[in-house]
Amino acid sequence: MAQPSTRFSDNYEVKEELGKGAFSVVRRCVQKATGLEFAAKIINTKKLSARDFQKLEREARICRKLQHPNIVRLHDSIQEESYHYLVFDL
Ligand SMILES: Nc1ncnc2c1ncn2[C@@H]1O[C@H](COP(=O)(O)OP(=O)(O)OP(=O)(O)O)[C@@H](O)[C@H]1O
């Protein structure tokens, strides 16, 4: 049987909480391969309605396109079984 995907925890070490959003917790994380630090916005997708889930996908799609010195860059976007991880520059 296929193992559930653990792409986030395989690749990042989760550290302290940096802040909270309406549907998310933002935590500092360290990319294991590089030692680089990022801010991971961790969203419990089990609590989201279908509409909210669409909004989350839209947010990720838009963030991926944004390139501006005053806007944090979306580095990675990972969907696992119960959580979605948006990995931003810290
Ligand atoms: N890239 C980052 N670096 C450092 N801290 C961050 C970063 N992103 C978010 N935070 C912290 O997390 C808090 C919540 O993040 P953000 O404002 O993105 O959430 P939100 O848009 O309110 O959330 P939601 O999408 O759940 O409604 C911020 O106020 C800030 O303290």
Give keywords:
single chain, 90 residues, alpha+beta, Phosphorylase Kinase, domain 1, 5-stranded antiparallel sheet, 5 strands, binds adenosine-5'-triphosphate
Describe this structure in words.
By secondary structure, this protein is α+β, with helices and mostly antiparallel strands. It has one domain: Phosphorylase Kinase, domain 1, CATH 3.30.200. The protein is 23% helix and 42% strand. The chain contains 2 helices and 5 strands, in the order H-E-E-E-H-E-E. It has helices spanning 7-11, 50-65, and strands at 12-20, 24-31, 37-44, 74-79, 83-89. It has a 5-stranded antiparallel sheet with strand order 1-2-3-5-4. A hairpin with a 3-residue loop joins strand 1 and strand 2. The mean pLDDT is 91. Adenosine-5'-triphosphate binds next to strand 1, strand 2 and strand 3. InterPro entries: Kinase-like_dom_sf, Prot_kinase_dom, Protein_kinase_ATP_BS.
Distance from N terminus to C terminus (CA atoms, Å) equals 37 Å
Task: Indicate the percent of residues in helices.
Answer: 10-25%
The overall strand count is: 5
Structural class: alpha+beta
What is the CATH T-level topology?
A: Phosphorylase Kinase, domain 1
Strand content: 35-45%
> How large is the count of helical segments?
2
What's the arrangement of strands in the largest beta sheet? 1-2-3-5-4
Major sheet summary line: 5 strands, antiparallel
**CATH level-4 homologous superfamily:** Phosphorylase Kinase, domain 1
Write the element-wise H/E pattern from the N-terminal end onward: HEEEHEE
Q: Low-confidence segments, ≥5 residues, pLDDT <50?
A: none
Rg for CA atoms: 13 Å
